[in-house]
Amino acid sequence: MRIKSIFALLLTFIFLQGCATDNESNSAEEVNGQASQEQTESNNHSELEKQDREEEEQAEGMNEEEEETQSAAGSQEAESKEVEKQYQINENTWTVDPISDANPKVALLTIDDAPDAHALKMAQTLKKLDVKAIFFVNGHLINSPEKEDVIKEIYDLGFAIGNHTYGHNNLKDLSEEEQKQEIVKVNDMVEEITGERPRFFRAPFGSNTDYSKKVAAEENMTIMNWTYGYDWEQEYQTKEAIADIMVNSPYLNNGANLLMHDRQWTMEAMEDIVTGLQAKGYIIADPETIK
Asked: How many angstroms separate the CA atoms of 231 and 202, rounded?
């Protein structure tokens, strides 16, 4: 009986030992399984990070290529805006003369004293007729945000903005410093509004000085006076009178440089002036083609 009890105890011990071993094995497998799962998750996370980096690098590369493409397009656009210079201003007659084989039968339209009251309407009429002109501005007339907007709109319509000095004073009555201020100040104003400095300069009353010519040259501006103009004279201050004389003036010839002003009667006659010149075979010169 005692031997049976000992034998039973022995069997119980062996059984309990086996259970302990199985539990340890299962625990080890669970630990190993968790470690394996953690390793897999870590590997997956690393792979995702790698993919994210690759996508970011690819996106950066595409952005750089896009920027380069846009830059190239911008350069091409700037180059396309460069118009061949076919004409130059004759400093003796102030006519627009062909440089080589350009058509000599042209007339240049210029409007002084802008933006007074009618310049924008004149520009809109010229735009409708698909012809160009130079609007010579006085700085003292650009005296409000509304007037600045007028200059910008005229420019955006495709017209050249010229410099007619700040105060419309006779430059021969001013000191050199005052002359420079009269000229450069307008260029600064126009550049602030349009982003471009004027390329053409017209002195009030056509009264240039040696010093004003020097300043104009330093500012890379072409000086021009005019061939003829009439709209400040009393007898031509109606639509019909100014249209007739501008088209039938004895001074109308190849390269004529027509002087007009920001005035109501000239604004009203603008379409008749253009169509009258064209009927006589004149091409309205594009200021962009003038050297």
From this structure: 17
